[in-house]
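Q&A log
Question type: sequence-to-structure
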Amino acid sequence: MVSLNFPLWLRFVLLVGIVGLVSGASLMAYRYYTRPVTLSVAVGSIDGEAAKAMSAIEAGSSRRMRRCGSR
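Response status: OK
Response body:
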């Protein structure tokens, strides 16, 4: 195996560049996985009970998500 002898300044620049790329990719992944998610459900009935039931389910779901620390 051949050893490459780069100058010290070039090693430093490469190290900073690689750390910058990894940091940027990590930040993008974090932002992607912590973004809010919206679930849309179409409900309908003559008396409106289905919409009331979905509102109750949504309220309970959001309360659980806040308690768990999720978004």
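Response note: The chain has a mean pLDDT of 83.
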